[in-house]
Amino acid sequence: MGRAGAMIMRHELRVIGTMPGSTLFGIAMPIVLAALTQGLFTSAVPTNSVSGTGGAELAVPGMAVAFAALGAGRPGFAFFRDYGWGTWDRLRASPASTLDIVAGKVSPWVIMSLVQMLGLFVAAIPLLGFQVSGSWPALILVLFGTALCLCTFGALMTAVSRTSQQLNTISSVCGLAFAALGGAFVPLSALPDWVDAVAPCFPTYWAVRGLHAVVLEQGGLAEVALPVGALLGFTALFALLTTARFRAGESKVYMG
Q1: Residues in domain ABC transmembrane type-2 (predicted)?
Q2: In this structure, is the dihedral angle defined by the CA atoms of residues 33, 37, 39 and 41, taken in order, positive or negative?
Q3: Dihedral through CA 215, CA 141, CA 145, CA 56, nearest 10?
């Protein structure tokens, strides 16, 4: 990302900064749901987990990944907002390349998603008695890989959507599918056997797997290498598809 992309990124961060309620909602709502469901998760705690592990250690990572998946479409609305404001053509006429525009629009939401997930983990410690048995650097690496992957998928959804309403529909359906079939909303052990076969096809599966390695099994950087590698692989695939499909001159309709 060049200088023009960095300027777009700073502008998007300023816009996000005007919506503190959205940031807090992305922390408060998952922690409320984790508090309500941690009792249900207790019976699903793996037997190889460290001593003292309870339902919160399953519910919190799951809700973090689920809400990140449900919010994957947020970067797309940054694009459609410019169409609605009539500033997209001005942005295209600037020295910024298409790569600068896409990277500058998406990267602030990667930061936003990372902050929300990390904020959820930190808040859950005093509120739910949540514990991380493994390495915090490894945990942050998994969270960053998750945020980067899902926000890149958001860029892909933007590329294939012609209207903001289409983007909203696609992101809602895909977010629910990612969260449910990746084992975020409900542990895979409680789902039908066929879900085990398809779950690795979703990045959320690898995000949950990496978080469980750190939270439940005292994992460090070595233990999350495979899940993070899988997340980066999905990111590369989504980025490649976005590059192939995204058209800066394509007409889009903002239906705000």
Answers
A1: 21-249
A2: negative
A3: 20
